[in-house]
């Protein structure tokens, strides 16, 4: 575990990198707003986080295995007390007011809030043959009645090679074209505006070596305010909507029940 001083300094350094991301170099407005940054935390810190991923044979994971839609493992966090050492330090940084303010300013989305319930967020592992179909994410958080606005990912894939695949795909507004592929290299952060037209995914089965997994941390951020009309296709709450499901969720619906 790291000291408060170290964590604050790391958050401040990352905040500056977010705010200084340059247009059309590592910050983009089309097809939707996104940025990516490298070497976002101290190298040893990143290594410790990577080593802290639990083994896949533990009960801390749930497996999604829907052929051609989603094949991966996801952590089952329900609170910060489920989060492994070192990774909890990184989560504290990413959920801090320091980072929230910089993301709000960069993406022009005021009053961002993190998710203390970690609904859908946490660690992800994809093994050889795994994939994630092109999709848009769910829009509503039941526990807080807030609206999802930004996703943040950090990758922990040391020695990644192009033939391994698994790049993060940024897709056009109608999901018909992959506009950009971002390699999931070690210690790289991706943040993007999540809404009903921000299609993304890695639809081709990855070719990572059998003994190496594609590893990432994913966190979501919310606002009380709803998304702008030009980002809204469905006004009611919905789950992830998949290209291969003809823009419906896993149950074949475009909206879902909520509370």
Percent helix: 10-25%
Strand content: 25-35%
Please give the CATH class: Mainly Beta
Radius of gyration: 17 Å
Uncertain runs are none
Q: What do we call the CATH topology? A: Jelly Rolls
- Indicate the CATH architecture: Sandwich
Provide mean pLDDT, rounded: 97
User: How many domains is the backbone divided into?
Assistant: 1
Q: Give the tally of β-strands.
A: 14
What distance separates the N and C termini? 37 Å
Describe the model.
Strands 1, 2, 3, 4, 5, 6, 7, 8, 9, 10, 11, 12, 13 and 14 form a 14-stranded antiparallel beta sheet that branches. It is globular and about 45 Å long. It is α+β, with helices and mostly antiparallel strands and 259 residues long. It has a single domain (4-245), classed as q2cbj1_9rhob like domain (Jelly Rolls, Sandwich). β1 (27-28) and β2 (34-38) form a beta hairpin. α1 packs across α3 (87-94). The protein is 17% helix and 28% strand. It has 4 helices and 14 strands.
